[in-house]
Each structure stands twice: as C-alpha cells, then as structure tokens.
Amino acid sequence: MDEPLAIKLRPKKLEDIIGQKHLVGDNCPIRNFINNKKIFSMILYGPPGIGKTSIATVIANEIDLKYRFLNATINDKKDINIVIEEAKMYGGIILIMDEIHRLNKDKQDILLPVLENGLITLIGLTTSNPYHKINPALRSRCSIFELKPLNTNEIIEGLNKAIKSGYLKDIMIDDKSIKMIAKLSSYDLRNAYNLLEMCYYSTNDRKINIDVINKINSKPVFLSDKDESFHYDLLSAFQKSIRGSDVNASLHYLSRLIKQGDLDSIYRRMTVIAYEDIGLASPLMGVKVESAINACERVGMPEARIILAKTIVEMALSPKSNSAYLAFDNAYNDLNDNEVYPIPNTIKIDSKIYKYPHDYKGSYVKQQYMPDNLKNKKYYKAKLTSSYEKSLNEIYMKIENINKKSND
Length: 408
Prior knowledge:
Blueprint: H1 5-8, H2 21-24, H3 29-35, E1 42-45, H4 52-63, E2 67-71, H5 77-90, E3 93-98, H6 105-116, E4 120-126, H7 130-133, H8 136-139, E5 143-146, H9 152-164, E6 172-173, H10 175-184, H11 189-201, E7 207-208, H12 210-216, H13 229-243, H14 247-260, H15 263-278, H16 285-299, H17 304-317, H18 323-333, H19 387-407
Parallel strand pairs: 1-4, 1-5, 2-3, 3-4, 6-7
C-alpha cells in the first residue's frame, strides 16, 4: 500500500524542517547538538502535526546513531527490553517514544536506570504539557523543549514543498486554494498534507480549486489577510466579551469558534477566563468549566454546543474579580533576579521559634512570614463584587487588625 504524502515528505535533514526556528535555527539548541554530534535525552511537546516526530528522526539521522521508535500506549515492557538489549549490542541507542505521557510506572522503572547510565538516549514526544503529565523522575532526566504552533505562512511553505515534490504528478492548484487548505488545517501540517492529497485524488484532471476543497472538507474557513492573527482576534473578542459581561456577544463569538471546529481553543480560553477574569468572585467556576469540558469530550458535537452555551451564559453573567491574578503579578514583579530574599528564621525548616497556628485561638498567631525587605508589602486587594470575596476580605481584614494591634 502506498505511503501517505505526509510520510513521504517527512524531513530527512535539519534544513527540511518547517518552523521551530527557536530550536533548529542557527545557533539554536537542537542545531548545535547536531553540529557538535552530542545528543541528550529530551522531551518534545506541542500540538499535533507541527514536527515532533520529524525533529526526533532528523536528530537520529544527522548524528548517525541507531534508533528505535515505540509508542507508550501500544508497546509493552518486552518491547522496551528488546531495545535495551540492542543498545547493549551497539553501545547505545536512541529511543523515540511517542505518547510519552502515557508511559506507566512499570515501563518507567525499566527505562530510568538505562537513561541514568546513558545506554539509552530518550526522545519523548507528547501533545501534553510534560510538567503536568510526566512523572518527575523521568522528567528530571530529560531536557524539555516546547514546539510552537506553525503559522499560516509555514503551512503554505509545506504545501508548496508537497506540490513541487513530484509525488502529486500534474497537480494544478492556485494560490487561493493553497491558502484555503492552510486555513482548514488548523495549523497542523500533517492535516494540510492529508487534505491536499485527498483533493488531488478526488479529481479526474488533477486540478484543485475551491469547489473541490469544499466537497472534501465542509468545515467553514474564515479567510483573512492577517493570516492567523484573525484567529487570535476572534479568541480575544470571545474572552473580552465574557469579561465584559456581554452575554450576547459571548454567544456570538462562541458560535464563530464552533463553526471553525476549534473546540480546543474554546476549552483553553474558557479555563483561563474562569481563573483570570471570574476568579474569587465565583471560585467554583473553574470546577464547572472543567466539568463542562469533560462532558463535551464525552458527548462530542453537535450536543457539545448545548453544554458550551449553558456554561458561557453563566460565565458571562457571573460576577468578576481579577484580584488573585493581580496579587500574584504584583508579588512576581517584586522579585529581583540579582537579589536573594532570606527566609525569616521563624519559618525555616529547623526553626526553634516557629509558632504552630493551630495551637492558638482562631488558628492564627502573629509571626513573620515575609522576608525582611518585603515584610510590609501588601499584594492582595479584594474586589468586593461577590459575597464570597467579601467573606474572604473580612477574614483578611481581621488578620490585618490583629497584626496592627500587636504592633501598637
């Protein structure tokens, strides 16, 4: 059976990789690893179809080392042990592990010692954030590199490469159709290649135009001279409408995002809004959003739109507070990279003068927690837009008054 176009076009050398210049560009980490013929265990993470597998195989090819490809979901301990035995034969091997975040503890326990002694160099691939999804013991043995989503111009670059490759003989396609395929790909190059190939084989004359594309993929596309900035403008409008409590505009922009089929962006933005804009005014909103996302994933479209509509109405009409977000930013902005803020003796791990709050009335006792040079700083400023944050503020002010009386 003939290989898919995406496989045929998989890069063989570094110069063939599209995008990811922060990793493979001049004087960037992965390019320098290859130039120095030295490779380390690493995890590559980012959205699908942006080059994780390509970069991994290029590394192995360019450094000219034996490599094996496994999938953490499919391959078992026996498969890993076979790779370890091969590594002993060759004096080392690169193991490219897809879906690395699904590697269970039993498989990790086999890998950790051979990663430690360098017998195996691991290149893990995942669409999930490794800081959340990958065991710390495994993560600590790997450098972590985030791959960035491809932009429209990079997808178009890949499509033009496919058109000129010779794999699609006698293909005819205009720039407008190329741009439409790029837009429909959701910034996934593999998806773009697949759509191009389907369009090519769906015709008798090998001529691809807008009509051909629409017959293959009916998902609406909003073309814009601003390329992917249009997509981010739409997400910005969505968030700002919810933040501004305009429920009608919120539903309008939700509808446009759903028409684009971009549920992942909706989910991410809803999660951010729940914590950034609604925050302490309705602290259960984060849980409600997570529950809604799980329900959407379970039922899929078109029913998911009902769940999203209900949740967006509630988010838009919820009281808003960004006090926690602003408090953190204020605290973070006070940090100076060139200055160390000593932890007070009262709360060091071996402190002899620490007062255990639960031993005192109201489970509170005045003692110093802040470093000396920041001890009078106040980061949190309540926004009294909800009964919940009002109750938190009452506790905060009560503690402040106790501290003030102690100083008098």
